[in-house]
Design goal:
This protein has nine helices and 16 strands. It is an alpha/beta fold.
Length: 295
């Protein structure tokens, strides 16, 4: 009997062993979004990954987006979406849609899928226990080189000012998996829409997480020639940003990585969520599959 297929499976587990040992008891914040949230097979693969992380002794925290789903709901309601620097301009009507889609439908779908595969997920929004407190985001743009910066009104888009990490730590300690929708609350109880990438970075920083992962619809960070950069430090990442190589939806991810790394997160990763079990491949294999960012 040829045992090669079985020994190959054992080799996979042995390759994962040092990483499982290294990350045991550590917190990993995972920003979940893009195609991985839409494709049914990928949704279930992601849920299994998260459950496996918990069972091998890690503390996964899921922060999810939902841009395409918000956009589709807005379209059905006759609302027009507008973006500035990758951020959704959020008037009162759009805020209602954001809370309905993110905090309601999507959050509970993710929770249910993780629980289906043996996890104990709990859905939260930033409003629960003042998990995410925010103020109105101030954005300025310079239209021409010699013109002064002018303010851009993003509506109810928020900048996080405080993270109540206690509620997350209590859930972690009792075996639960927090699944967080990135809406926040203001000091007067007002609602804010927070970019999910930014929220994930702030949460990772507040918890001093071991790792921060972003699931995207690209292989990772690409250079000017479209080649995948498997590893970068913060200085190289800042240089790419200054050169204009990074733009659009990648900018909030990059800013979140830099913020998290400056505040104690050990490593950040931008990976291709279109690859089944991308989280496991990045965390538990020698080569990984995306871009690793270190201080």
């Amino acid at each position: 009997m040829d045992l090669t297929p079985y020994t190959q499976r054992a080799d996979v587990l042995i390759e994962a062993l040092p990483y499982i040992r290294q990350f045991f008891g550590k917190t990993v914040v995972i920003k979940y979004g893009g195609h991985a949230m839409i494709d049914d097979a990928l949704r279930h693969a992601f849920a299994r990954d998260i459950v496996l992380l918990k069972y091998v002794g890690m503390h996964p925290i899921v922060v999810h987006g939902g841009g395409p789903q918000i956009g589709e709901t807005m379209k059905r309601m006759g609302l027009t979406a507008r973006f500035v620097d990758g951020l959704r301009v959020t008037d009162a009507a759009t805020m209602d849609v954001v809370e309905m889609v993110l905090g309601g439908k999507l959050n509970k779908e993710i929770v249910a899928t993780i629980n289906l595969h043996g996890g104990q997920a709990v859905g939260l929004s930033g409003k629960d226990a003042n998990l995410l407190v925010a103020t109105k985001k101030r954005l300025y743009r310079q239209e021409t080189p010699d013109a002064p910066p002018t303010p851009v009104d993003l509506g109810q888009v928020g900048d996080i000012t405080a993270v109540n990490s206690t509620v997350i730590e209590v859930l972690e300690a009792n075996g639960f998996i927090p699944v967080i929708a990135p809406t926040a609350v203001g000091t007067q109880g007002e609602s804010y829409n927070v970019n999910a990438d930014t929220a994930a970075g702030d949460i990772a920083a507040a918890l001093r997480a071991e790792k921060l992962l972003f699931l995207t619809d690209v292989p990772g960070i690409l250079d000017r020639d479209g080649k995948l950069l498997s590893s970068l430090n913060t200085a190289a990442l800042e240089a790419l940003k200054a050169e204009g190589v990074l733009d659009g939806g990648m900018l909030p991810k990059v800013e979140a990585c830099l913020h998290a790394l400056r505040h104690g997160v050990a490593k950040a990763h931008i990976i291709d969520g279109r690859v089944p079990h991308a989280v496991l491949l990045e965390l538990f294999t020698d080569r990984g599959i995306g871009t690793e960012i270190v201080r």
